[in-house]
């Protein structure tokens, strides 16, 4: 392809001379220069439709004018004064909104942080403090972040454990209920929730339920490949928690703020979590995270158990307030649901045509397209790598995770014609892969998640 990418390649080369490799998952050399709505421009002036939204962090799209204006106004007033010691209006206003939009008709409190990772650390602290227990339960293949607490909850990459010493300990990982790849070998229609029995067995045999402080579950497993659990599973898990005095923690860093067609993913399951963990899209790209929990849970920790000099930064809070108001005002939750249905329909049509598409699943605009070698269902990492790379070459930002699952999470403001153009590029790339037109050299360059 004769598109100019010299500047991007040179930035990427320079980057590797200075930036530590521990913080990079390389797909292709896209150096961002500008972005607006659902379109990103690279340093060479090429434009891309964005099906990634900066890893589901930009539900309102790039540089939404409401968010930009709110931040500019706050910048003119003041940038920051540590909220560990002093108070500010944007922080209170943001907390008020978070209490309003989160499920659960009970008194709540909000704890702000900086990233999804530290919010998960906070959730562990709260669960331990409130219950007086130490153990946590989370899921195999989950990604919860890179701080010591959140990486201990995670179970997705040995590189998050190798060489860095023991994690938190006391975390028990169980399989996520993945009906496409049932860890117990069952078919969807002949399943009687044996997977939840695994936890019940654990409680009966080696994991005393009275030692467990909390269960951390993503309502849709994100980096595990957009896996939507059965409703009965989530309800039974919630019941098990209630029966045993264990806190149910809904980890919504990736699925929150309208991504799944509801404000929070857990609302699809009719369950009221004790703690909700938020990050990413909360402030349209500004670094801030939040925990919302029952008041009595929050009251179990005293200062300075969880505070940061920069948390509740008023510019970030203003961005978050504008984000929430925009999601409400522009009906983006419903838009996510409707556009998600549209995309699922189109992707399912593709599934009928191409054997390498094994599964299409998701809720709202959080969709995974699982690529396989053939009807055996073997994971096809090569296809995911080559297809996403070719999409980039053709003007679509698309990545993959879980090795072989294409990640479809565009901004919720994306226009239908942008979706259509993006899907057309995806289909062309799939056809080129099937014809063997994408060279193996791509596999050397693109590593992926
Ligand atoms: C579900 C989930 N939790 C937590 C995190 C960590 O968030 P952050 O990278 O903001 O620390 C991520 C990031 O990808 C995530 O997807």
TrEMBL record:
Lineage: superkingdom: Bacteria
Gene Ontology terms for molecular function: (S)-3-amino-2-methylpropionate transaminase activity; 4-aminobutyrate:2-oxoglutarate transaminase activity; identical protein binding; pyridoxal phosphate binding
This protein's record includes keyword Transferase: yes
Cofactors: pyridoxal 5'-phosphate
The keyword Transferase is annotated on this UniProt entry: yes
Annotated SUPFAM superfamilies: PLP-dependent transferases
EC number of the protein: 2.6.1.19, 2.6.1.22
Top-level EC class: transferase
Pathway info: Amino-acid degradation; 4-aminobutanoate degradation
Pfam families: Aminotran_3
Keywords: Aminotransferase, Pyridoxal phosphate, Transferase
InterPro entries in the record: Aminotrans_3, Class-III_PLP-dep_AT, PyrdxlP-dep_Trfase, PyrdxlP-dep_Trfase_major, PyrdxlP-dep_Trfase_small
Catalysed reaction, written as an equation: 4-aminobutanoate + 2-oxoglutarate = succinate semialdehyde + L-glutamate; (S)-3-amino-2-methylpropanoate + 2-oxoglutarate = 2-methyl-3-oxopropanoate + L-glutamate
Family affiliation: Belongs to the class-III pyridoxal-phosphate-dependent aminotransferase family.
Alphabetized PANTHER family for the sequence: AMINOTRANSFERASE CLASS III (PTHR11986), LEUCINE_METHIONINE RACEMASE (PTHR11986:SF58)
Protein name in the entry: (S)-3-amino-2-methylpropionate transaminase
Protein source organism: Peptoclostridium acidaminophilum DSM 3953
Organism placement in taxonomy: Bacteria, Bacillati, Bacillota, Clostridia, Peptostreptococcales
């Amino acid at each position: 392809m004769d598109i100019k990418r010299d500047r991007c390649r040179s930035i990427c080369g320079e980057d590797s001379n200075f930036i530590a490799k521990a913080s990079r998952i390389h797909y292709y050399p896209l150096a961002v220069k500008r972005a607006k709505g659902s379109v990103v421009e690279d340093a060479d002036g090429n434009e891309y439709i964005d099906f990634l939204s900066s890893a589901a962090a930009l539900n309102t799209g790039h540089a939404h004018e409401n968010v930009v204006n709110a931040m500019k106004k706050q910048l003119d007033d003041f940038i920051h004064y540590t909220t560990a010691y002093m108070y500010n209006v944007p922080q209170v206003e943001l907390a008020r909104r978070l209490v309003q939009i989160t499920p659960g008709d009970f008194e709540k409190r909000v704890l702000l942080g900086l990233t999804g990772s530290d919010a998960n650390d906070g959730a562990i602290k709260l669960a331990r403090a409130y219950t007086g227990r130490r153990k946590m339960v989370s899921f195999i293949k989950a990604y919860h972040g890179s701080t010591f607490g959140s990486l201990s909850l995670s179970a997705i990459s040995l590189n998050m454990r190798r060489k860095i010493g023991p994690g938190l300990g006391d975390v028990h990982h169980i399989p996520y209920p993945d009906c496409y790849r049932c860890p117990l070998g069952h078919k969807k229609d002949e399943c009687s929730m044996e997977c939840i029995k695994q936890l019940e067995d654990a409680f009966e045999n080696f994991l005393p339920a009275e030692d467990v402080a909390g269960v951390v579950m993503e309502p849709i497993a994100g980096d595990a490949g957009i896996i939507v659990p059965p409703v009965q599973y989530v309800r039974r898990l919630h019941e098990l928690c209630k029966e045993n005095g264990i806190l149910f923690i809904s980890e919504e860093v990736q699925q929150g703020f309208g991504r799944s067609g509801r404000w929070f993913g857990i609302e699809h399951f009719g369950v009221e979590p004790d703690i909700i963990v938020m990050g990413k899209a909360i402030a349209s790209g500004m670094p801030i995270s939040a925990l919302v929990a029952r008041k009595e849970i929050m009251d179990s920790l005293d200062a300075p158990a969880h505070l940061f000099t920069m948390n509740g930064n008023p510019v970030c809070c203003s961005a978050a307030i504008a984000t929430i108001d925009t999601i409400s005002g522009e009906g983006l939750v419903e838009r996510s649901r409707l556009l998600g249905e549209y995309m699922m329909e189109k992707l399912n049509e593709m599934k009928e045509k191409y054997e390498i598409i094994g599964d299409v699943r998701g809720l709202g605009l959080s969709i995974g397209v699982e690529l396989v070698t053939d009807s055996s269902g073997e994971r096809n990492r090569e296809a995911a790598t080559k297809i996403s790379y070719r999409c980039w070459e053709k003007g679509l930002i698309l990545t993959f995770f879980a090795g072989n699952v294409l990640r479809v999470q565009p901004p919720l403001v994306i226009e239908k014609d942008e979706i259509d153009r993006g899907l057309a590029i995806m289909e062309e790339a799939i056809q080129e892969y099937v014809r063997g037109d994408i060279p193996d050299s791509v596999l050397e360059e693109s590593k992926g998640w």
